[in-house]
Amino acid sequence: MADERPLIDEELQPEPVIAPGYTFGTVTDQIASVVLTRRTPVFWMACFSAGFALLLLLLWSVALLFAKGVGIWGIKIPVGWGFAITNFVWWIGIGHAGTLISAILLLLNQQWRNSINRFAEAMTLFAVACAGMFPLLHMGRPWLFYWMFPYPNTMGVQPQFRSPLVWDVFAVSTYATVSFLFWFVGLMPDLATLRDRATNRWARGVYGMLAMGWRNSVRHWHHYETASLLLAGLATPLVLSVHTVVSFDFTIAIVPGWHSTFFPPYFVAGAIYSGFAMVLVLAIPLRAVYGLEGLITEKHLDNSAKVMLATGLIVGYSYMLETFTAWYSGNVYESAALWNRMTGPYAGAYWFLITCNVVAPQFLWFKRVRGKPILLFLASLVVLVGMWLERFVIIVTSLAQDYLPSSWRIFTPTRWDWATYLGTIGLFLFLFFLFIRLLPMISIFEVRTLLPQAKIEEEGQA
Amino acid sequence: MSAPKKLDLPAVRALLEKAHGRDYWRSLEDLAETDAFQDLMHREFPRYASEWEDGEGRRNFIKLMGASLALAGLSACTRQPTEYINPYVRQPEELVPGRPLFFATAMPLGASSTGLLVESHEGRPTKIEGNPDHPSLGACDVYAQASVLGLYDPDRSQALAEEGEIRSWSAFLETIRQAVEAQKAKQGAGLRILTETVTSPTMADQIKGMLAAFPAARWHQWEPAMAHSAAAGARLALGQPVNTIYDLRGADVIVSLDADFLASGPGSLRYARQFASRRRVRDSQTGMNRLYVVEPMPTPTGTKADHRLPLRAADVEQFAWSLAAAVGADTGGRKGIPNAAFDKWIGAIARDLQRHRGASLVIAGEQQSPAVHALAHSMNALLGNVGKTVVYTESVEANPVDQVASIYDLVKDMDAGAVDLLLILGGNPVYDAPVELGFRDRLKKATLRVHLSLHEDETSELCHWHLPMTHYLETWSDCRAHDGTVTIMQPLIAPLYAGKSVHEVLTMLTEQPERPGYDIVKSYWSRQHTGADFEAWWRKVVHDGIMPDTALPAKTVALRQGWAASLPQPASRQGLEIIFRPDPAVFDGRFANNGWLQEFPRPITQITWDNAAFMSPATAHEKGVVTSDLVELEYRGYKMRAPVSIQPGHADGCVTVHLGYGRTRAGHVGTRIGFNAYGMRTSNALWQDFGLKATKVGSGYLLVSIQDYHALDTRRHIIEKAAIEEYRRNPNVIQESAEAPPRELTLYPGFPYDKYAWGMAIDLTACTGCGACVVACQAENNIAVVGKQEVHHGRHMHWLRVDSYYHGDIENPEIYNQPVPCMQCENAPCELVCPVQATNHSSEGLNDMIYNRCVGTRYCSNNCPYKVRRFNFFLYSDWNTPSLKLQRNPDVTVRSRGVMEKCTYCVQRINRAKIDAEKEDRKVRDGEIQTACQATCPAEAIIFGNINDPNSRVARMKAEKTNYGLLADLNTRPRTTYLAALRNPNPEIEA
Question: Considering only CB atoms, which chain B residues are within 8 Å of A135?
Answer without folding.
Answer: 857
